[in-house]
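re: that chain from earlier
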Amino acid sequence: MNLDIFDIMAPAFFECLVLVGIHSYLGIHVIKRKVIFVDLALAQIAALGTTVGFLFGILPGSTGAYWFSLSFTFVGAAVFAVSRFRHEKVPQEAIIGVTYALAAAIAILVIDKAPHGAEHIKELLTGSILWVKWSTIANAAIIYLIIGAFHFVFRRQFLMISENVEKAKEQGLSVRFWDFLFYVSFGVVITHSVGTAGVLLVFVFLVVPAIVSIIITDILWKQLAIGWGLGVVVSVLGLYISYIADLPSGPTVVAFYGIVLTLVTIVVYVIRSDRRNWAMIKIALGTGITLAVVFGFYVMGKAFQSHFHEHDHSNYISEEEHVLHEIQEHKLLEKMSEDELNAFLGDYRNVDKLHLLFDAEPDNYVRFKIADRIIQINKSDGLKLMLDHLKECDLPFIREEIVSQLRKYTGQNFGFDPSKDMQENEFALKKWEEYITN
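^ sequence. v structure.
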C-alpha cells in the first residue's frame, strides 16, 4: 500500500484549517488589547500542565494530559484577568512575560525529573501535527465552533473591551469578568491547539494572520477574510514544502509564515510610501546587509569548524576501544549535545562497533541516532535495526522520529501511527518488515 501526499498530509492540512479559523479571530483581539504574548504564555502554561502530567506517567495526548493542561490554563486565565489594572504602572504585557518565563522555567525543572525530558520539551515546542487523528480534528472543530458561537453572541462586550476599555467601563461592563471569560475561552482553544500543533505553531497561527490583516485594513470582516485566506495558503505551501524536503511540518509552517509576513510588510511599505523609489532603495540596502551578515556567519562557522577538527577531533577518535568502554561505563552519549553526538557517531564507520554501542546504550533517543548512523553506512542493516527499535520503543515522540526516518529512507509510510501501541500498528509493521526484507 503506497501512500501519496494527500494520505500523509491531509490530516495535518485540515488541522491547520481548523486552527486558522479560530486563531485568526482571537489574534485580532490580542493585537488590539496589546497583549501579544498572551497566547505564548497560555500555551506555555498549557504545556506546563501536560509536563506535570507526564511526570506522573500520563502520556501527552491522553485524557489525563488534557485535563491537566486545561486546569493549568484556567489558572492562567484567572491570573491574566485580575492583572489588568485601570491605572497600571506596570503594563499587563510585563505580567504576561513574567508568567511565560515562570511557566517555562518550572516546566524545565519538572521535566528534568522525568525520563527523556529533552524529547518531551521538543514535542511541546514543535507538536506532532503530522500524526493528528481525524477524531482529534473533529473534536477540535466542534469545540472551536462552540467558542466561536460564544464570541459571536457576546461580540459587543468582547470587542468593546478589546478596542476601548474606558468606554466599556463607562457603560457599566465588568472588565475583569469579561476578561476572565475571554481568557477562559481562549485557554480552551489553546489547550486543544498545543497538543497537536505545539507552542510555536499555535503562537504564529494567532499572531501573524492578525498582524498581516491589521496592516492591510481596519475593517473587521476584511481582517478575518485576509487572516483566513492567508492561513489556508501558508498551510498548503508550508506542509507541501515540509513533505518534499522531508522537514518537520510544524516548524516549516512557522518559518514560511515568517517569510510571508516579511514579504507582505515590504510590499505594503512600498505601496504606501510617498517616495516609492527611495523605499525600494532602502529595501535593497537592507537585503544586501542581511545577505552580508548571513555570509559572515557562514564564514565564521566554517572557520570554527576547521579549528574544531584540527584541535578537538582527537577527543572522539583516540583509543577507540577505550572510548567504547567509557561510554558503556558512564553513559557518555546521553550527556552529549545533539551536535556532539552527531560528530561522535560520524567518526564511526565500523558497523560492528556501532552495534556494540547500540546494544549497550539504554537511552531510546541515542539508540535511534546510532541506528540512523548505521543506515548511512549499511542501509539494509540499519533499516532492520531501526524497525526493531521501533517495535521496542514505548515513547510516542521517539517513535515519531523513527517513523520519519523510515519514511525518508524507504519512501513508504504504511499508515503507522506513533500514538498507538504496536498491536494497533501490526499491519504497518508487517508491511514495513516485508518491504525492508525484500
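The chain has a mean pLDDT of 79.
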